[in-house]
Amino acid sequence: MTAPGADLPGQADLARLAQASGIALESYRQAHVSACVARALARHETASVAGLARLCRRDPAVRATLRRSILVPVTGLFRDPEQFELLGERVLPALLRTRSGLSVWSAGCSDGSELYSVVLMLRRLGALEGSRLIGSDLSGGRVELARQGAVVSEAVRREATPVLHWERRDLLREPSPPGTFDLVLCRNVAIYFEPPAQEALYAKLAAALRPGGVLLLGACEQLLAPDQFGFAAAGPHLYRKVAA
């Protein structure tokens, strides 16, 4: 329920709120943004989106709460276990046939659970040492949580630290991390974007993969025309970059 007289964001309000929150709101699905804004208006008893933008600029706690709502921090070790079973049983062993370590990017890493799940699988396969693993997220707070490694044991965190790198990165506004990757995980991120932003993101992820590298999307995401981005379907929500 919104506050009395609350309005939903028009273009001018959306621009003000995007600037105040630091999120490219125009690229997110309008229904998702509107729902998050309506909840924020009711929570803070604010009657206008312009007023909410002013609150965000003035109060870091209000800004942080709105960002968490829009960025949807839902994660956990081996979340969607069938996807990790596919990675552990088929994808990682296949990628490791020609190399002793892998380069992996978790795009939208949240608290690091996804990338630590990959760490545990590479560790089991004897391929953690020599791998390069990068986790990035738009939220600096989540990046710090990932860096702390609270989702795994202290022994695993210490073993993984030399090959792990965590960074704040805006997937829509900034380039991919340097280098190319064997595996990119970008799960349950694009579903919140408008189609043009989705296409731009998929093109960016494709460019970040080496030929033969693999992209894993979330269980509710799929590429309707994978060849548009230079991919061939390789399994459920899984796409392999076709060599040029």
Key phrases:
244 residues, alpha/beta, 2 domains, seven-stranded mixed β-sheet, 9 helices, globular
Strand content: 15-25%
CATH architecture type of the largest domain: 3-Layer(aba) Sandwich
Number of helices: 9
Uncertain runs: 1-7
Mean pLDDT: 88
Shape: globular
Order of helices and strands: HHHHHEHEHHEEHEEE
- Domain count: the total is 2
What is the multimeric organization of the chains shown?
A: single chain
Distance between the termini: 52 Å
Helical residue percent?
A: 40-55%
Characterize the main sheet: 7 strands, mixed
User: Going across the major beta sheet, what is the strand order?
Assistant: 3-2-1-4-5-7-6
The CATH class of the largest domain is identified as Alpha Beta
Class computed from helices, strands and strand pairing: alpha/beta
Radius of gyration: 19 Å
The CATH homologous superfamily of the largest domain is called Vaccinia Virus protein VP39
Number of E-type strands: 7
Q: Any idea of the CATH topology of the largest domain?
A: Rossmann fold
